[in-house]
Amino acid sequence: MTRRVKWLASLGMVAALAVGAAAITPSASAKPRPRHHHVHPTSATPTAPVTSASFTFTVGVSGVAKSLGTINVSGNGVADLVNDTGSLSVTLPASVAKLIPGGSGGPEVVNVVLSGGTVYAQIPSLATLLGEPWISVALPSSATSAIPGIFTTVGGALGDVNEILAFAQSHHASVHALGSSIVDATSVTGSRVTAHVKRLNIVATLWANSSDQLVQATVSGAIGAGHRVGISAVVNFTGYDAPVTVTVPSPSQVRAIPLSVVTSVLGGLLHYGAKKG
């Protein structure tokens, strides 16, 4: 594999992590949204938006490239919903980590922080090449200004699963009650959401506690023409409203990379993956 391809894989991975961090980090400045009058299968009493949360996750992706097979990643993180920051730690499998220049060929742990419209990533294999342990990517002003609104929506939904189900129903998804169960030693009630959109089939199962807070979400689906890319994920949430710490790296430990470079390289990586697939 050429050095250029390895750099494409590395920077493309950073871009993907940046998008993921921005997408999953909720905001605490969230204010309660108007309640929907749909019947909630769990019959739980909704609560106000949460102020913090901890989470763990596993994600599997297949069909990206034959050379990579099924890519399985796992990790954990926290979200400070008052200060609009979040962090996560992701364990990359050897099949992906080996694409990073300087990689040892084994699994690698990557740390990501989202704060103030900037995504920071710590990729151990790149530290020697870049001269700093962290890199940073500043999001464009349009994305930064949109983050509070996204955080408001997601933050409210974490404390009100009924809101998620109502949104799904309003967009023509099917919602079915699953009854009671136990998840992470917590009594929960579940709902299954099935949606079929052009080039996307998705099935999600949501488990909520007695306060209607999301405890676990599982998602499986297929994306793209012919549903070539398959995705499965499980996310568990705990520690609602508990103190969390999100540490932003010192500027002296960060090498900044322009977003334009990352997006350009990501495009090259996707093209490479399509050719290999």
Q: Beta-sheet strand percentage?
A: 35-45%
Please list the strands of the largest sheet in the order they lie side by side: 7-8-9-10-11-1-2-3-4-5-6-12
Label the CATH architecture: Clam
Name of the CATH first level:
Mainly Beta
Mean model confidence by pLDDT: 78
Question: Number of domains in the coordinates?
Answer: 1
Continuous helix count = 6
How are helices and strands ordered from N to C? Answer: HEEEHEEHEHHEEEEEEH
State Rg.
Answer: 19 Å
Q: Could you give the count of β-strands?
A: 12
Structural class: alpha+beta
Distance, first to last CA: 15 Å
Major sheet summary line: 12 strands, mixed
Low-confidence stretches: 1-43
State the share of residues found in helices, binned by percent. Answer: 25-40%
Report the CATH topology name: outer membrane lipoprotein receptor (LolB), chain A
* Overall 3D form: globular
